[in-house]
Design a protein that fits this description.
This protein is mostly helical and about 130 residues long. Helices cover about 65% and strands about 5% of the residues. It folds into two domains: about 1-75; about 80-125. The protein has helices at about 5-15, 20-30, 40-55, 60-70, 80-95, 100-110, 120-125, and strands at about 1-5, 40.
Length: about 130
C-alpha cells in the first residue's frame, strides 16, 4: 500500500516536466492495473486542486474531471474515497472552496451537523 503525494498527480496532469511526467505516468499505470494500491489523502487532493487552480490557472471543471479520473483508478483505495468523490461533486455544483466541499461531503455522507460561521458552508447544506 502506498500514499501518493500531490507532486505525482500534478506532474502527470500538467506534463510540464518530461522525466517526472513519465515517472508519474508509470506509477499511475501501476495503480490503474492494481499492480500497486495507493491512497490519496484529503489534504493531498486539496493541495492538487489548489495548485492546479491557482498556480497553473487551469479551469475548475477541467481540474475536477481530471481528479475524478485519477480517483477512479482501480488501485486507488481508502476509507475516504467516497467522501472525496462527493467533495468533487459538490465543487462542481457550488462556488465554494475545496475544504468547505469536503466538510459538506462528510456531513452529508456520515450524517454530521456542521458548526460554522461560514456562509459558503450554508450553501452546501441547503
Amino acid at each position: 500500500m502506498y500514499l501518493i503525494d500531490a507532486n505525482i498527480i500534478v506532474r502527470f496532469l500538467t506534463a510540464d516536466h518530461e522525466e517526472r511526467f513519465q515517472k508519474a505516468k508509470e506509477i499511475l499505470l501501476k495503480v490503474e492495473s492494481r499492480e500497486i494500491e495507493a491512497e490519496i489523502l484529503d489534504g493531498v487532493l486539496a493541495e492538487i486542486y489548489f495548485v492546479l487552480l491557482k498556480v497553473y490557472g487551469l479551469p475548475k471543471q477541467s481540474i475536477i474531471g481530471d481528479l475524478k479520473t485519477v480517483m477512479s483508478l482501480d488501485g486507488i483505495v481508502g476509507d475516504n474515497k467516497i467522501i472525496l468523490f462527493e467533495a468533487l461533486n459538490i465543487l462542481e455544483r457550488k462556488n465554494i472552496d475545496f475544504v468547505d466541499a469536503l466538510i459538506c461531503a462528510k456531513a452529508k455522507l456520515q450524517n454530521y451537523d456542521i458548526l460554522n460561521f461560514d456562509n459558503d458552508l450554508k450553501k452546501c447544506v441547503k
